[in-house]
């Protein structure tokens, strides 16, 4: 990619004001609502697609189902929202009218929660013009931007585009075998950062998913995804935005330490290189940390199956576990 082409790329994190300006100038965009709701015990089940159809929405947005555009079945231990194949991704993008040159803007209804996962998916398949709306739909509403509040009976169907089948970029997704080998490398190991809440990392809180050990991958570090987010309130509900860059730097440096920070900066600042791997419960909130460190110029990979895979294997004695 040329310097001029790189300079023309949109920011990975975009504000409501910036998005509104791009919509007003009629720039070529595809805006995706990639909301995903975690099912919590004793909590009402929320349907992201139904809420998209009911509205409100960012005008012109389409719904991206993160669990539908995903590899499923025994090959991925029946885990949810695992990375799709290149052909599946290309078909889904083309169905939304997306070409390889389209600027894709992703948002969710939490603020920042599930949108980074879809942005990471586009990025890992080499789609550079992708942005996450900082604060998502709530920030858009709080900024007083125009809303589409109509109730829809079905998804809008844009003209189908042509999207070439991409190849997943090397090193962007880590397998269990790679992660297991990494635990044996000592000081040469890649830094692994866990986005789950501290108590789950420590092994003092039970896992919300069944048949799973508690604890963390040996030698990994804890950085709960909530630590990189600011919380706001709108109409009695909270939503999140990404912390400013200078605060992210302090938070990440406090977790990694001076030596660790230098390592991930060195390993993950060159073009195409990856300096750190992120894990979480199911590969969703790990992408929030990916987005945060991208703001610091550090590239990261995702351990796709995350603790849903490692913890299940550990419960069967097939993977080592540490507890704090």
CATH topology of the largest domain: Oxidized Rhodanese, domain 1
Largest sheet: 5 strands, parallel
Report the average pLDDT across residues.
Answer: 93
Could you say how many structural domains there are in total?
2
The string of secondary-structure elements, in order, is HEHEHEHEHEHEHEHEEEHEHEH
User: Strand order across the biggest sheet?
Assistant: 1-5-4-2-3
- Main CATH class of the largest domain: Alpha Beta
The CATH architecture category of the largest domain equals 3-Layer(aba) Sandwich
CATH superfamily of the largest domain: Rhodanese-like domain
Strand residue percentage: 5-15%
Helix count from the secondary structure assignment? 11
Looking at the structure, what is the overall shape?
Answer: globular
Which residues sit in consecutive blocks of at least 5 with pLDDT less than 50? Answer: 1-7
Radius of gyration: 19 Å
* Separation, N- and C-terminal Cα atoms: 44 Å
Characterization of this structure:
The protein has 324 residues and is of the alpha/beta class. The chain has two domains: 13-143, Oxidized Rhodanese, domain 1, CATH 3.40.250.10; 173-316, Rhodanese-like domain (Oxidized Rhodanese, domain 1, 3-Layer(aba) Sandwich). 32% of the residues lie in helices and 14% in strands. It has eleven helices and twelve strands. It has helices at 3-8, 16-24, 48-54, 86-95, 115-124, 136-142, 176-182, 198-202, 245-268, 286-294, 306-315; strands spanning 13-14, 29-33, 62-63, 103-107, 130-133, 173-174, 191-194, 221-222, 229-234, 237-242, 276-279, 300-303. The strands form three sheets. Strands 1-5-4-2-3 form a five-stranded parallel beta sheet, with helices on both faces. Strands 6-12-11-7-8 form a five-stranded parallel beta sheet. Strands 9-10 form a two-stranded antiparallel sheet. β2 (29-33), α3 and β3 form a beta-alpha-beta unit. The longest helix is centred in the last third of the chain and has 24 residues, at 245-268. It is an enzyme of class 2 (transferase). Residues 25-149, 186-319 form the Rhodanese domain. Keywords: Pyruvate, Repeat, Transferase. Its EC number is 2.8.1.2. GO terms for molecular function: 3-mercaptopyruvate sulfurtransferase activity; thiosulfate-cyanide sulfurtransferase activity.
């Amino acid at each position: 990619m040329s310097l001029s082409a790189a300079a023309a790329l949109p920011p990975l994190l975009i504000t409501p004001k910036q998005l509104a300006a791009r919509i007003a100038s009629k720039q070529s965009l595809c805006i995706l609502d990639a909301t995903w709701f975690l099912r919590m015990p004793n909590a009402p089940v929320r349907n992201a697609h139904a809420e998209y159809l009911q509205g409100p929405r960012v005008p012109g947005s389409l719904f991206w189902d993160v669990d539908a555009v995903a590899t499923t079945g025994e090959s991925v231990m029946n885990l949810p929202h695992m990375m799709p194949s290149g052909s599946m991704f290309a078909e889904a993008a083309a169905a939304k009218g997306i070409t390889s040159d389209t600027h894709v803007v992703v948002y969710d209804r939490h603020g920042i929660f599930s949108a980074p996962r879809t942005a990471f998916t586009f990025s890992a398949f080499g789609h550079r013009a992708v942005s996450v709306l900082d604060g998502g739909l709530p920030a858009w509403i709080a900024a007083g931007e125009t809303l589409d509040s109509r109730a829809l009976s079905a998804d809008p169907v844009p003209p189908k585009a042509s999207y070439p089948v991409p190849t997943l970029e090397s090193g962007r997704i880590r397998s269990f075998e790679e992660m297991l080998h990494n635990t044996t490398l000592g000081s040469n190991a890649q830094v692994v950062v866990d986005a789950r809440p501290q108590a789950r990392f420590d092994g003092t809180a039970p896992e919300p998913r069944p048949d799973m050990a508690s604890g963390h991958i040996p030698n990994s570090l804890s950085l709960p995804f909530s630590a990189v987010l600011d919380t706001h309130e709108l109409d009695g509900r909270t939503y999140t935005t990404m912390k400013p860059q200078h605060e992210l730097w302090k938070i990440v440096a406090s977790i990694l330490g001076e030596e660790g920070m230098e390592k991930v900066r060195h390993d993950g600042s060159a073009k195409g290189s990856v300096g750190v791997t992120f894990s979480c419960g199911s590969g969703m909130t790990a992408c929030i940390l990916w987005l945060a460190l991208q703001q610091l110029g550090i590239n990261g990979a995702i351990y796709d199956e995350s603790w849903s895979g490692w913890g299940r294997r550990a419960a069967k004695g097939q993977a080592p576990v540490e507890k704090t």
